[in-house]
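TA notes, week 10

Several of you asked for a full example with nothing omitted. So below is the full record: structure tokens for the whole chain, then the designed sequence directly under it. When grading your own attempts, check the secondary structure regions first.
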């Protein structure tokens, strides 16, 4: 298909939600798959609820996910004149009319119909009114004149369900096109904008299904060609309820802050309701290559945080450590806690990346390396019965560290050379152990406790490299001092 054009049209009344991001992604990859264009439109006509900060967040979050508009971003608030000219046309052609009914009167009608067990709809009081100039000075809205011929219906094809949806016109109210304050409603502005931008396919949440017939009526009344429509089902939480803040993070920026990678989120979101065989790991390029609407699921998708974490670990694991350092720094507010972009940090990051599900977790695991002081927590230390031999070992180990060739500790940010350095440290260390008749198994825990204060740590060789001689020696001395201090209280020592 040629000249495909899609759009994402968020209202800036909140941060970009995970559901919105998925809708944007569907539109983006559908356009790209077909060699078409994707555009972003900010639907900010709800002046009270729209906020600049949300608009910025939406644009930033989409950019972070690599969902970029192919054209200048449209803002509806800049287009009021355009909407005005189309309203005039509809009024002139008798397809829209002024309505002067007060809120109280409408409320009364509504309550009466509800009491009669009928669908509350506008009574059509002003449909045939020909208001004079004086009346037009009083508050009013403008309504669409729905075709009320007895058998009139509005039909459209939904590309996800792959079926025609037909709605009797009598089910549809004479809906408002322009509010009392002169601002167009969503249903009106969306049609003008989609038509004038040449949108060929609208992919959006199925909470908009009931708006589609109204919009089709407007396309017809204005003599525009209607686009195709694809309504995607909702995202639900594990409890089957619509995904909301109760289920944890729901905004894209929150996921970013929590240490998720954009590739993981894109991969996760696309699989949330679309599939390509059994493929779980899909890059943006692959998604674009394979995407089609017919493989979008008809049923609601259930959000599964475990799976998102699994994908995130996969992407973290496959990243260059220098890039990971940059990504961690991007989400670190406090400038003091920023990581150095150097080979030492990269060595530790590289050794920890396969054990971290998020960047935040990875950053926490780096604490022992970043911080100067090591805490010897009683709940960890009390598990061990240290003895005199441990002090003997630490003394020799310190000498071993001091004896390492300075050349091993490369300074340049070269991962290939790092591998060589780590290999040399490993060989030297194994030689040292075997000469002394010790084994790694026996001594590894003591070293971890000395270097990290924890029973688990990155591999010892990487730590030796990253800390460097001076910091290693300092930690060994500190730990020896600690062991000597507990010796006084421990008779078995
Ligand atoms: N501004 C609407 C929303 O955020 C857009 C709906 C549509 O895609 O037509 O829900």
């Amino acid at each position: 298909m040629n000249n495909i054009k899609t759009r994402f049209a968020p209202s800036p009344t909140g941060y970009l939600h995970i559901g919105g991001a998925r809708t944007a992604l569907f539109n983006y990859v559908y356009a790209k798959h077909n060699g078409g264009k994707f555009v972003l439109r900010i639907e900010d006509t709800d002046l009270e609820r729209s906020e600049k900060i949300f608009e910025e967040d939406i644009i930033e979050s989409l950019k972070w996910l690599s969902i970029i508009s192919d054209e200048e971003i449209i803002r509806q608030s800049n287009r009021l004149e355009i909407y005005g000219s189309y309203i005039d046309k509809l009024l002139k052609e008798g397809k829209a009319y002024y309505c002067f009914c007060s809120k109280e009167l409408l409320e009364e009608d509504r309550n009466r119909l509800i009491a009669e067990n009928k669908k509350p709809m506008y009574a059509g009081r002003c449909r045939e009114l020909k208001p004079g100039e004086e009346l037009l000075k009083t508050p009013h809205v403008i309504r669409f004149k729905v075709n009320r011929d007895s058998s009139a219906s509005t039909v459209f094809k939904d590309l996800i369900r792959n079926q025609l949806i037909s709605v009797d016109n009598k089910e549809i109210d004479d809906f408002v096109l322009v509010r009392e304050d002169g601002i167009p409603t969503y249903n009106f502005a969306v049609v003008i904008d989609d038509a004038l931008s040449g949108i060929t396919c609208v992919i959006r949440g199925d909470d908009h299904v009931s708006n589609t017939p109204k919009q089709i009526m407007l396309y017809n009344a204005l003599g525009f060609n209607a686009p195709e429509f694809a309504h995607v089902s909702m995202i639900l939480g594990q409890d089957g309820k619509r995904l909301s803040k109760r289920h944890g993070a729901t905004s894209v920026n929150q996921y970013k802050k929590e240490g998720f990678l954009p590739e993981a989120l894109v991969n996760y979101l696309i699989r949330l309701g679309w599939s390509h065989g059994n493929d779980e790991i899909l890059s943006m390029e692959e998604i674009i290559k394979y995407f089609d609407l017919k493989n979008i699921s008809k049923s609601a998708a259930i959000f599964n945080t475990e799976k998102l974490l699994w994908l995130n670990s996969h992407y973290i694991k496959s990243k260059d450590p220098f890039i990971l350092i940059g990504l961690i720094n991007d989400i670190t507010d406090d400038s003091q806690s920023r990581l150095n972009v150097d080979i030492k940090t990269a060595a530790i990051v590289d050794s920890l990346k396969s054990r971290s599900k998020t960047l935040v977790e990875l950053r926490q695991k780096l604490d022992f390396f970043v911080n100067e002081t090591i805490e010897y927590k009683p709940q960890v230390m009390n598990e061990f019965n240290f003895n005199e031999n441990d002090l003997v070992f630490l003394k020799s180990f310190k000498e071993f560290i001091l004896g390492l060739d300075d050349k091993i500790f490369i300074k340049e940010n070269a991962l290939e050379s790092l591998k060589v350095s780590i290999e040399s440290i490993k060989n030297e260390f194994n030689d040292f152990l075997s000469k002394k008749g010790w084994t790694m198994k026996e001594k590894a825990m003591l070293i971890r406790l000395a270097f990290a204060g924890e029973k688990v740590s990155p591999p010892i060789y990487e730590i030796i490299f990253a800390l460097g001689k001076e910091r290693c020696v300092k930690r060994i001395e500190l730990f020896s001092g600690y062991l000597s201090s507990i010796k006084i209280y421990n008779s078995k020592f």
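The domain at 319-493 is CATH 1.10.10.350 (Arc Repressor Mutant, subunit A). Use that as a sanity check on your answer.
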